[in-house]
Design goal:
about 350 residues, alpha/beta, Nucleotidyltransferase, domain 5, 7-stranded mixed beta sheet, 7 strands, globular
Length: about 350
Amino acid sequence: MMTRRLVARVERDGLQRTFSEVAREIGVHERTVRRIIADHIRWLEGQHRFETPRWLGLDEIHIIRRSRAVIANVEERCMVDMLPTRQKQALGTYVQAMANRDRIELVCMDMWAPYRDVARELLPRAQVVVDKFHVVRMATAALETVRKRIRSDLSTKRRLRLKDDRFLLLRRARDLGPQQLDRIATWTEEFPDLGAAWNAKEGFCDIWDARLTPTQAKGRYAEWASSLGPSASDAFRPLLTALRNWEAEAFAYFQHPVTNAYTEALNGVIRVVNRVGRGYSFEVLRAKMLFAHGQHAKRGVPIIRERPEFGERVAGFLGSRDHSPHPPTRTPAVTEFGVPLSVLADLIEREVI
């Protein structure tokens, strides 16, 4: 019983604001807004086909009680999709359905075995590169292990001081001032195990910051690993094991210095959108990220595509089985790469989403 204009308004506002806000404003039940948006999302799915990236980014985010796979175009810095799970079967089905997947040259990921398995099986020509920041993060985690072990034996006052100074310990030495380095020296001189772990962290990060060939990097890493003392070797064991299992993919970074930093930032944006609209389903959250404002990175000349008749759309969200399928539409000449992170960040800053 809605006018066409009101349905169009719900479609527009429902992806930019919370459903409860839209429902209160126009005087309908929130369930009605959800049904209209569900049908609108199905229509949007048919309208947009993002270009298969040359540099594919795979990451995950734990949101709405489950880990979700995030797909990104690393080269164009765009969000391509978000999957309901990060399991191998779901990702494999998605990658297998990608158009022209042979054009994928690099796959940047963290050390999650199902991602690597999918890349090896379905993208045999693509080079897998482990994200540099996931590797370096394991070195800082090893330092944190040593710091927490030492902190447990300190008085309350000193324990709090060491807790406050953990940010200095985790930062790179090159980014610290003289006074900050003196504070670190005080701790590392008093606790040699902490000093050994801090020096090991710095030495490892220096390797990943250097411009080296894969062979040179492996040599530097072997020297670093052999120089670890007993206490540092124990703390850094998870890192040593990970690089033994992921050696080829981790050191591929030195030949293809591609990172997932964009995808990591994208995950932060997803969390903000989910927090603002607490209670969203996964499908709605995904649609808000991909379609809410239609500001996709594009190339080419667009061709106007007709929308289905109003009656068909209404029948769709009411669940009728009697409506005819949408007529075929022309393929657009424009190439869409996804949603740029800069656009999403700007929309959040302006409190649009």
